[in-house]
Amino acid sequence: MALAEVILIGLSLLPNGIASSSTDEIRNRADEAFHAGVELRGEPERSRPEFRRAAELYEELVARVIQDPSLFRSQGNAYLLSGEVPRAILAYRRGLRVAPWDSELQQDLAYARGLVHHAAGSLARQPSGERPPWLPKMSWDLQFGLLCLLQVVTCVAATRWLITRHILPRDLALAGLFVEILLVMNFACDLWQYRQECRHSVLVIAEDGLLLRKGNGISYPARSDSPVNRGTEALLLFERGDWIQIELAGGEIGWVPRQSVLIDESRSGD
Amino acid sequence: MLALLAVWLLASALLQASANDQVVEPPLIGRPRFFSGAVGTYRVSMRADPMELEAEDPLTLTVRITGTGSLDRLPRPNLRLLPAFEKNFHIEDLQDRSIPAEKSREFDFMLRPRTAAVKEISTFPFVYFKPGAIPDYRGYETTYAPAIPLTVRPRSSVKPSEIQGQSAVPHLPERFYRLAEPSRIIRSDWLISSNMAPVLVVVLLLPPGLCGCIYWVWYRRHPNSARLMQARRTSSGKQALRALEQTKGKVSKTVDIVAEYLRKRFDLAAAEPTPIETAAHLERLGISTELIQRIAHFFRNADRVRFGPDEALATEDWTATARDLICALEGVRWR
To answer: How far is A11 from chain B (nearest CA, A)?
Structure first.
């Protein structure tokens, strides 16, 4: 009986065991392919397939719902090294959805964006930052902790001022209140961006010279003469058949063929 | 008899010849909506190339009209008027050509199927007028070009290796050639979950709530200090209290400061008010009797010190008395 119980317990653990070992195996293979590509970096014709293979293996890990920002970063690097800028940008964006405050992902994304060729006057050009640069990037936990601390300091200083009418507590309370307002604005920006990403999937254009059209078909005229090129980021608004409606970073909305874009299908919903 | 027959035949031939020379105008009565304008006898056919394609790829449709009537003046058929064409295809007109030897005219169109659901180029109706019918409006006839089956595939998705203009790998910084270190900075969504909202509100309101309680306790325990703080809040009270610190106990200065305060705060008109005038004015404002008596008492005593030899009163702490009066007046709620 005891032996049967042991066997049953072992069998119940077996699928998880197999899954984790296969995940590690895939990760190892991906890392090996990446290293192989690095060793062949002087020969692009040989290194690119290795980097592409590494990227595809990382994609397999992502499909197993492994939300590790380093995984997305490695995948993005692999795609970038294989010359596939659109897929690299998408990988970085997916990583930043999981870890918005990862500074390395932000740097890598900024670098990849610099490789995208935008037509002159194009509204597709990504703004230098979706948030004001003077707003610091902090995790939500850290922001909340700071907010609580400032709340205490501000209230104590305000009470002290009410009692003693000294200038120093009044100034301290005002300064604390000002920083609290900044923190709340910062949090509101983060939350708004998070809601946007939850509501609309991020996508990246995969072709050069794509025209944004006014309707779901080539019979509709183009919105402007400036095409959008591969690597341009947008949000998915609506789908109709083989065409999708997208919104570019500059706010321009139009329709493009579905097969011309790479869509992040794995976004989390609300 | 024979002569009459010959004349009749000649006249019929002449009439027929003249009829052939005239341009027949089709009647308006009974004219179909999609009448092409052609007069004569016609047949129509179509051909398309290619017949297997992807959605939105172009194909060339050639409509061939063969007939006895005048082909040169034949207008180009308008496929956009036909719902089956307009709905399924994007239509562009191309060139046309005449083939006199075959008594035909061909019109080329470029069609692009809008979706992969398009299965055929539907039948094309050609409406013409054939003269000679009695009544003449029955001369309108329609001939059809049969439908052409199509195989329209959905557009294939782009494979990574087919992405246009795969860029040459730029000289990337060294950090891209290293695997990323595992990161622990992952967003946690507990803060924005709906369960946490009441907790967050309580946590953020706790410090001001506690401080409010502390202030209330202090206010109850130190009423004079509280009133002093309140008095300092109004500008006239603030000025008066500040000025009192400079009097160094002098009665006349103290009285002047209090009088000035009463003028600014309660609109007391008199420059040097008497106790009776002051009491009357404050009573009209609804200030309590006890406070009015204290003020009147203050002014009477001050007059005794200033104008009479009352040395006992001279030693009193006038500054503190004036301060208490001002604080009491600042705490007053008046009508």
So the answer is: 31
- CA–CA gap between residue A198 and residue B269 (Å, rounded): 70
* The amino acid at B296: A
For residue B218, list chain A residues with Cβ-Cβ distance below 8 A. Answer: 163
Instruction: Report the predicted TM-score, pTM, of the whole model to 2 decimal places.
Output: 0.50
Give B62-92 pLDDT, tens digit per residue.
999 999 877 888 889 999 888 889 888 888 8
Question: What CA–CA distance (Å, rounded) separates A148 from A140?
Answer: 12
Please give the Cα distance from A226 to A236 (Å, whole number).
20
Give, as one character, the DSSP assignment of residue A210.
Answer: B
Is residue A171 less than 8 Å (CB to CB) from chain B? no
Residue type for position B41: T
The overall longest dimension of chain A from CA atoms, in Å, is 80
Classify residue B102 as left (phi > 0), alpha (psi -120 to 50) or beta: alpha
pLDDT tens digits, one per residue of A210-242: 888 888 887 888 777 678 888 999 999 999 988
Position A254: which residue type? G
Distance CA A176, CA B211 (A): 15
Task: Give ipTM to 2 decimals.
Answer: 0.72
**A80 in B contact zone (CB under 8 Å):** yes
Q: Which of A52, A87, A165 sits opposite B232 (nearest CB)?
A: A165
